[in-house]
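User: Hey, quick favor. My workstation is busy. Could you predict this chain's structure for me?
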Amino acid sequence: MRYLDEYRDPVAARRLADAIAVAATRPWTIMEVCGGQTHAIVRHGIDELLPDAVELVHGPGCPVCVTSLETIDRAHAIASRPGVILCSFGDMLRVPGSRGDLLAARAAGADVRVVYGPLDAVEIAAKNPDAQVVFFAVGFETTAPANATAIWLARRRGLSNFSALVSHVLVPPAIRAILGDPRNRVQAFLGPGHVCAIVGVTQYELIAAEHRVPIVIAGFEPLDLLDGILLAVRQLEAGRAEVENAYARVVAREGNRRAVAILDEVFEVADRTWRGVGPIPASGYRLRPEFHEHDAERLFEVETITTAESSLCRAGEILQGRLRPTDCPAFGRECTPRTPLGATMVSAEGACAAYWACGRRSEPAHDAEEVRA
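Assistant: No problem, here it is.
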């Protein structure tokens, strides 16, 4: 694992942490956008290496967490129909809806199957022509090209029994929403490396220029994150507001053109409601009209759903960087991985799940001596 270990070198991590401490002469608040970055930060103790002047807050970059409650309930309603096979990635099965999760629906008799990719769902549709196969298409721009490809392929193969419940969300509008909130205190962002590997960085350049905010595209290993934080602090201290690509081994400025092409062919931009956050204009994808025959939301007529969110869950404030998981009174009490109130406690990229898995029950002490492997 040489090429992984070199990004987890504790000596190099300490040097970067020391450089951040020297560079930060004033308090700064930086948000990591991606939930994968959040888990890496908590797991490796990155925030504990930082000086008190630099605060990291967690953003809305967990696609499972921000999938609206209405969409979760629509998935339940569709899965409960006779003759339906609902296919989903495993991390969606325990996300609580108004009336339980998809695991409970499966226990009650629904045919809910875990797949490892959207093309698996296409093959299930081909092998089960008498069933309606629905793929739960969730994610940011990272997973959208594969899901678009599955829908495109199903149309090409004439699989009229295949459809997708689409709940794709887009990162740049969410960043704009955070910056436009009068309660915002985020001064710089660590941009999502995997998303930018697909769509590039030009949208982030527009945000940086418009809002005068530094954005550093960062990876997911400890040295990636520390390097990104250092670059962000240096920009803040110098009064600069630019996009810097600290993940050049993966991200090109123009992104992946073939992936963007399939996105443009299958999807169009639409308004989207984010769980815990609310409606954000032009923040998601929906199927273009020529693919409506594969739109599960239309086919099953589940557009209107009445939802009921837990009154105890503070996930929305956590997703917007206003609270840490440990600030929520329900964290570790009413809300645990066994009894989750919100998606942030069960998702593989949720902040609450990261804090729980790493034993965080209080604020970090900022005294770690090295990155934890």
